[in-house]
């Protein structure tokens, strides 16, 4: 049975839990999300927990419901190894994306993480534009992003790849590792420790589950061998919080085919710090960075200080965020109209009822 401190419990969580504490409840941390149920780690052991309708109805959005990494209040049934989640404690950090379908809804991939390992492999998977997208959401989450370049043993010059990624990784550690040779693994362990939580995010087959198993020194997660073309066969089908024997926790996630941005106004500024700091050097404060004289952005592109592809990536991601915000504003306005209409209908119905009584 885990001690809460090893799962990341601290004084902040103790004070958040205090209003709900009692003999009939215990705190716990969500380790796996199933359809309609959750596995929760508690000092009573792992409990399979359901969520009452009250909690579902109180949630303003799906993102308010429990997610892997969340701390929750549980009414346990120890004899059955089950329980009911009665409350989700406020999150310290949240790694979210827009749902892959059309609706503008937030999907929480991991909660209460300290480090976001952004994992990509050096066997043809390296894509700087994709990494910029991951970095934007990682900075927005509140966690510390760390770029992990796996399968360095398959790359002829891993140092060149490190330098290439370093150009876009402002304030972000970048590590090249190999689970085969052990290269770079100590640098990954340095980001972990007792009570610290990391989430692994990346495309399918980049070696996330293999990395977890290597760090744990045991086959905790199912993996498959690398194919002849150097690509892994992805097997992770769910998000799962795993305790490491040496201290620390990691959340493994399924391969992400499409990472759509959620609201990330602060995250994009952090991820593109080299771009945004140019804005203050423009001659005009309202510079559109197009053809205006004295534009520091256009000058940086012209002299090679700023890659045109990086500027285009920034503009594209900024456009996605703006489009999402407009969509959310329209949805909020439509919901407000719906509520006012419902109130009006209720008021008219009450007036008709009152008239009949008189």
- Percentage of residues in helical conformation: 25-40%
Please give the alpha-carbon distance between the first and last residues: 67 Å
Strand content: 15-25%
How many E strands? 13
Q: So what's the overall shape?
A: globular
Total helices: the number is 10
Radius of gyration, Cα only, in angstroms? 24 Å
CATH architecture label name of the domain at 94-252: 3-Layer(aba) Sandwich
Q: What is the arithmetic mean of pLDDT?
A: 86
Which quaternary structure do these chains form?
A: single chain
CATH-defined fold name of the domain at 94-252 = Rossmann fold
CATH superfamily of the domain at 94-252: P-loop containing nucleotide triphosphate hydrolases
Written as H for each helix and E for each strand, in order along the chain, the element string is HEEEHEEEEEHEHEHEHEEHHHH
Widest beta sheet: strand line-up? 10-9-8-11-13-12
User: Pairing-aware structural class of the strands and helices?
Assistant: alpha/beta
Are there runs of 5+ residues with pLDDT below 50, and where? Answer: 226-234
